[in-house]
Every structure is written in structure tokens, then in C-alpha cells.
Amino acid sequence: MKKTILLPILALAALSLTACGGSFANTQTTEQQSKPLDCTGLHMKNAQWHFTDANGNTIDANGACHKGMRHGNFEIFMSGKKVAVTKFIKNNESKTSCFANDTKSHTMLDQCLALAAQGK
Question: Is the pTM here over 0.90, yes or no?
Fold first, then answer.
């Protein structure tokens, strides 16, 4: 009798868990790639972005999206030159290694991009 009750409960639990996990895409659209580091609705390892920032600089970036959030290391390039590696944890910037002006420093990503734009 315990087996007949336990089996439907386990099946229901498995169905509810799988229903929640399938709402994220594993490929980016062109529109998603043109937004600055936007992982909304994505779950993929090799996401890429290509956009122009407010100062007119060409920015290329790659990183990982986990359940719609930026998670892991993101490499950011400005006009083909690597300017930063930023680590995100659950969509929050954890630390950034900035390579602007040929020196390595630790700063926030926005500040690093501003420094790199000044040194252009």
C-alpha cells in the first residue's frame, strides 16, 4: 500500500520539477546579442554580445548565462582589444580585472570601460 501511494507522489514531484526548468533558451537572438550583457531568458555557456556603448565604442563580450542571470567570467573587448574580465555571481558583479591603458587594476566594470574609452 505504501508503494502505491509513494509512486504517484514521486511522479508528481518529478513533473513539477521538470516543468520549471524548461523556460530558458540555449541560443541567443540577434536582438539579445545587441543588448549590453543581457542574460534575460537565457541558459547557455558561450553567450556573445556585440554592441556600441553610449560613447560610441564598439564592445564585444562573451560569457555564460545561468537561469537568466550573468554567472561566471565575462571577457569584454573594446575595438578588438581586451579591456576587462569580470566575474558575475548570480547577476551581481563580483570583481573586475581591468586592463585599460596597458595596466592591470581592480575596479568596477563601468569605471573600467570609462578608463578604456579615455585611453583610446
Answer: no
